[in-house]
Amino acid sequence: MKTNIFLTIFLFAAISVSAQADLLIKHSGDTIKGSVVRLTEYTVIFKYAGEDAENTLSKYAIGKIVYGKSGRVEKVSDKIVIHSENDWEKVIILEDKSYTAGLTKGGEIRGQTAFINMQTGNTGDKKAEKKLKMAAAGLGCPFVFLTSDKSTVGHNSNDLGGTQNIKTGVAYKY
């Protein structure tokens, strides 16, 4: 009789442990219950509890994952805090649209060099990127998805033969 009770308790404990969901804790403060399917270099693929469809979140949106079966905590990314435009160096330019999954759109932004300037191609590119990052930081957004990167040189740029760099993007925050 004691072995049956022990076996029943053991099976119940084993079932309840295996049924525990993983917790994805986002930098925004939201928590998602589900099961992590796999992690890629920049994304986390998961399923919501009780669902079979796979969903994707950017690793930039997730602070940590608490695995339900083992209780192990895995740090995914550090939160980037932007206080003002002066924090522009912390802003990250995202290379793929999927890296924005789980982030909130902050607005469209633009960074460009002056129409008439004395910048070389590379210097102008860096200056336009800095202005783009400053615009994102001004909105309190630590991420930019680049939508356009245009450089014109010589007579294609203006009548004076200058160089102009224009970068446009969408700013994102947690």
Question: Can you lay out the helices and strands and say which pair or pack?
Answer:
Elements: H1 2-18, E1 22-26, E2 31-39, E3 43-48, E4 54-58, E5 62-66, E6 73-75, E7 92-94, E8 104-112, H2 121-138, E9 143-152, E10 164-173
Parallel strand pairs: 7-9
Antiparallel strand pairs: 1-2, 1-5, 2-3, 3-4, 5-6, 8-10, 9-10
Low-confidence region ranges: 10-18
- Structural class, by secondary structure, is alpha+beta
Q: What oligomeric state do these chains adopt?
A: single chain
> What level of helicity do the residues show?
10-25%
Strand order of the largest sheet: 4-3-2-1-5-6
- The CATH topology annotation of the largest domain reads as Translation Initiation Factor IF3
Let me know the average pLDDT.
Answer: 85
User: Which architecture of the largest domain does the CATH hierarchy give at level 2?
Assistant: 2-Layer Sandwich
